[in-house]
Specification:
The protein has eight helices and ten strands. The chain has 320 residues and is an alpha/beta fold. It has a single domain, classed as Histone deacetylase domain (Arginase, Chain A), CATH 3.40.800.20. Strands 4-1-5-10-9-6-7-8 form an eight-stranded parallel sheet, with helices on both faces. Strand 9 (253-258), helix 7 and strand 10 form a beta-alpha-beta unit. Helix 7 runs parallel beside helix 8 (304-319). Bound molecules: N-[3-({4-[(3-aminopropyl)amino]butyl}amino)propyl]acetamide (SP5) and zinc ion. The site of N-[3-({4-[(3-aminopropyl)amino]butyl}amino)propyl]acetamide has 16 residues, from loops. InterPro entries: HDACs (IPR000286), His_deacetylse_dom (IPR023801), His_deacetylse_dom_sf (IPR037138), Ureohydrolase_dom_sf (IPR023696). Keywords: Hydrolase, Metal-binding, Zinc.
C-alpha cells in the first residue's frame, strides 16, 4: 500500500457551543465527526506513530503574541471562554472557544500533521493526517473557525525549510484565510483554494479572487470562489484551473487541506457534491500531477457519514 496515516482525534477536547446567526448552537467540530473515517483508515492502511515536535515549529507560522495568548488563556479559563472582543482577544469568532485542554489538543494536532509530513518526506509515500481541531482558518496572529494552530501551514513551512517548493491545495468548503495569511508574502509556497464565495459565506473577509499574494509572492495565491449549490460540473472546472496553477508552479511537495464540508449532506457547507464525485476529484489530481511528496490533511466536514464516504472515494480516486 502506498498510503500511510497518522491520527489522533483528541477526544478529550469537546467544544460545546458557538453563536450562529445570533443563537447558541452545538459546536459541530466534535470528535465523533471523524470516528468512521478513523475506523476506515485503521482497517485499510498502516498507521504511523506520532512524534512530539518542538514548539519552535509552531512559532515559524504563528506570532509569539498569539501563541502566548493561547497558553495563558487556556490556563486561566474555567469551562469554556468565548472571545468577547474579536481581534482584541486573539480569536476572531465564537466557533473557537478556549478550554483548559485546548493548548494541548492544538499542539497535538500539529504533531500529528508534522509526523505524517516527516514520514512522507523520508519514505516517499502518500500520507493522511486525520486530526482535530482543524487548522486552515488559523492566522499568524489569530485563531478562528474551529482552528487554533494552522496544522497544514506548520507542515508546509517544515518542508519549505528543507528547501522545497510547496503547494497547498485547499478543498475545504471554506476559504483557508489562515493559510493564505501565513504564506501571502512567501514566494516559495503556493496557496490555491476552491471555496464558497466569501460574499455569501464564512470567512467573509477573505477568499476573493483579487487576493493574489504580495511583493515577490504576487501570483502565488489563487482563490477560486464558487456559488451556493455548486455541483461537480462547476467544481470540476474550478479544479482544472487549480491544477493548471499547481502545474505551472512545479512544487516538490503538495499538501491537500481536505475538508468534506463540500458534500451535499454536510450541515455547514453549501455545495452539492455527491459521494461519487470525490473519486473524480481524487483521480483528476493524481492523473494530472507528478509530485514527489503528497500529504493530505483533514480539515472540516461535520457529517460523520459524508466524512467517511468522501475520504474513501477521494482516496480510491487518488490511489487509482
Ligand atoms: C474548518 C472549518 O470548516 N471551519 C468552518 C467554520 C465555519 N463557521 C461558521 C459557520 C456558520 C454557518 N452557519 C451554517 C448554519 C448551520 N446551522
Ligand atoms: Zn470548512
Amino acid at each position: 500500500n502506498r498510503l500511510f496515516f497518522c491520527a489522533d482525534l483528541n477526544e478529550y477536547f469537546v467544544p460545546r457551543k458557538e453563536i450562529d446567526n445570533g443563537k447558541f448552537i452545538r459546536n459541530p467540530e466534535n470528535p465523533s465527526r471523524l470516528k468512521l473515517v478513523l475506523n476506515y483508515l485503521q482497517e485499510n492502511f498502516q498507521a504511523i506513530q506520532p512524534f512530539e515536535f518542538g514548539e519552535e515549529h509552531i512559532l515559524k507560522v504563528h506570532s509569539e503574541k498569539y501563541f502566548n495568548y493561547l497558553v495563558k488563556k487556556s490556563q486561566e479559563v474555567e469551562d469554556e471562554y468565548l472571545p468577547e472582543v474579536f481581534f482584541v482577544d486573539q480569536i476572531f469568532d465564537t466557533g473557537t472557544p478556549i478550554k483548559k485542554e485546548i493548548f494541548f489538543a492544538a499542539k497535538r494536532a500539529v504533531d500529528i500533521v508534522l509526523s505524517a509530513t516527516k514520514y512522507a518526506f523520508e519514505q516517499k509515500v502518500i500520507t493522511y493526517a486525520l486530526t482535530r481541531p482543524p487548522g486552515h482558518h488559523a492566522m499568524v496572529n489569530y485563531g478562528g473557525g474551529y482552528c487554533y494552530f494552522n496544522n497544514a501551514a506548520v507542515a508546509a513551512r517544515y518542508l519549505e525549510e528543507k528547501g522545497m517548493r510547496v503547494a497547498v491545495l485547499d478543498l475545504d468548503f471554506h476559504h483557508g484565510n489562515g493559510t493564505q495569511d501565513i504564506f501571502y508574502k512567501d514566494p516559495n509556497v503556493l496557496y490555491v483554494s476552491i471555496h464558497g464565495d466569501p460574499r455569501k459565506f464564512y470567512p467573509w473577509f477573505s477568499g476573493y479572487e483579487t487576493e493574489c499574494g504580495e511583493g515577490n509572492a504576487y501570483g502565488t495565491n489563487l482563490n477560486i470562489p464558487l456559488p451556493e449549490n455548486s455541483d461537480i460540473n462547476a467544481y470540476g472546472e474550478a479544479l482544472k484551473k487549480a491544477i493548471q496553477k499547481l502545474k505551472d508552479f512545479k512544487p516538490d511537495a503538495l499538501m491537500i487541506s481536505f475538508g468534506t464540508d463540500t458534500h451535499i449532506k454536510d450541515p455547514v457547507g453549501r455545495f452539492a457534491l455527491l459521494s461519487e464525485d470525490y473519486k473524480t476529484i481524487g483521480s483528476s489530481i493524481s492523473n494530472s500531477l507528478v509530485i514527489d511528496y503528497l500529504i493530505i490533511v483533514h480539515e472540516g466536514g461535520y457529517n460523520s457519514r459524508s466524512n467517511l464516504v468522501a475520504v474513501k472515494n477521494f482516496l480510491a480516486g487518488l490511489l487509482g
